[in-house]
Design brief:
By secondary structure, this protein is of the alpha+beta class. It has five helices and six strands; from the N terminus they run αββααααββββ. It folds into two domains: 53 residues; 172 residues, Nuclear Transport Factor 2, Chain: A (Roll), CATH 3.10.450.
Length: 231
């Protein structure tokens, strides 16, 4: 009888401890779920606050790199979202397109056109993010630029401390046109780039309009950006 009582007491005690353990584990799971929900809510709130901080008309610092890169506090003209292209392209060192005689044009193959188009498109996507976003790395953009060009030096020494990056940023209507071969030996090319850079899911968009000069490698299998200017 005594043994049976001891067994029953022991069994009740084990059942009690098992219940406590299950309740404790359930509590941890509930706390974990609540923490995840809280983290998600805070992340959404922070993104909403950042979006509300972007004014309808923003001030873009000049990207001209003749001297030190402009800071966000520098006195610069205020531009609307549709006129950012002039400041974004000023890194080329040309505030306005220079008046030049019409460049000569040589026969160009379809393969050359495809290579020029791919290079211009990839560089534009890398350059726009680098020039318009806070502390964005320029290494990707520089990988498409001729190392011996003045443009490479200007891009390599440039940095900014302004702009906001969102996961929903995108490029819309990116078009490469007017592809020409302007020299044969070594081969050189020119093209025009038009694109719209949408920020925060299209809340703001910037029209970028560039003209590139490109140079082929000695082997001809690679084309690099040699110079750029805004149009």
């Amino acid at each position: 009888m005594k043994d049976n009582k001891k067994k029953r007491k022991k069994k009740k005690k084990m059942t009690f401890y098992k219940g406590l353990l299950i309740a404790f584990c359930s509590g941890l799971v509930v706390i974990g779920v609540l923490l995840c929900m809280l983290y998600g809510a805070l992340a959404r709130y922070e993104e909403k606050v950042q979006a509300e901080k972007i004014p309808e008309e923003i001030t873009i610092p000049s990207l001209a790199l003749g001297g030190d890169a402009a800071s966000p506090e520098a006195e610069v003209p205020s531009v609307s979202e549709d006129t950012v292209s002039e400041d974004a392209a000023a890194v080329s060192g040309n505030d306005l397109p220079a008046e030049e005689d019409e460049e000569p044009s040589f026969p160009i193959t379809d393969d050359e056109k495809m290579l020029v188009q791919k290079t211009a498109e990839d560089f534009t996507k890398a350059y726009a993010v680098f020039s318009l976003k806070k502390n964005a790395s320029g290494s990707t953009a520089l990988s498409f630029v001729d190392h011996d060009s003045d443009l490479y030096g200007r891009l390599a020494s440039y940095s900014n401390d302004w702009g906001v990056t969102y996961s929903s940023d995108s490029f819309d209507e990116l078009e490469i046109s007017d592809i020409k071969k302007i020299a044969e030996s070594p081969a050189e090319y020119s093209c025009v780039v038009d694109c719209t850079y949408s920020v925060n899911g299209g809340a703001y968009s910037y029209d970028l309009d560039f003209e590139y000069k490109l140079k082929a490698s000695e082997s001809g299998d690679k084309i690099m950006i040699e110079d750029m200017q805004n149009r």
